[in-house]
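Final report, closing paragraph on structural work. Over the funding period we assembled a curated collection of sequence-structure pairs, and we close with a single example.
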Amino acid sequence: LGLDRIEQSVAVMRKSGAGSLRVGCTPALGLSVMPPVVHAFSRRYPQVHVNLQTVGSHALREGLLYGLYDVALTTSGISDPQIEAVPLHRSDAVCVLHPGHPLANRASLHVRDLKDQVLLTLNADDEIHQQFLGTLQQHRVEAAATVETTYSVTICMMAAQGTGIGIVNPYVASVFARDLKVLPLRPRCPVEASMALSPQSAPSAIAEDFVGLLKAYFRDFGKGKAL
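Its predicted structure, as stored:
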């Protein structure tokens, strides 16, 4: 596998003449954050080959350790002594629901408002879900039913159908803001987007520029600014 990737990388550099950038991220960030950032990067470096892979947090950690990614972005923790994760943005989980939902006219939703509602949640091992579940238990809130799934985008799509109220990170929610009502959740459920570089080598100049674009995106997140 390693030899195949080396040969592929050499072939890409010969073709482009300007090198390559390998980026890994979780699926929700691949849908929300990466498209505008990669677009801005490609305009700045039109000859650079970009390889963007959306994978789970475990695969991100493995990819960084084996030198498969130059840059990785995640909302889940990367637990490894060889990898230094740097926080880029801190926010809170949000509720997404159909605009016609009876609770859609609220300014925010308290967890008590979710009693007897159909809740759309991520899998039990997800950090956001674990925090949310703890808040539900603390306030003794029981849902009418739950629909559990792997991807935040699936939650947003089901909420757009009117299936129930979803709990997701604000980045993926912003993609569906035209079709969904996005409301703050109280008490707050912290979400952190963090970045890590490959521990195998020093970052290249183009990787550092890509990181600069990531920071610019998060700095302007929610302000309606384009990169």
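Residues 12-17 have pLDDT under 50 and may be disordered. Residues 2-16 form the longest helix (15 residues). We thank the funder for supporting this effort.
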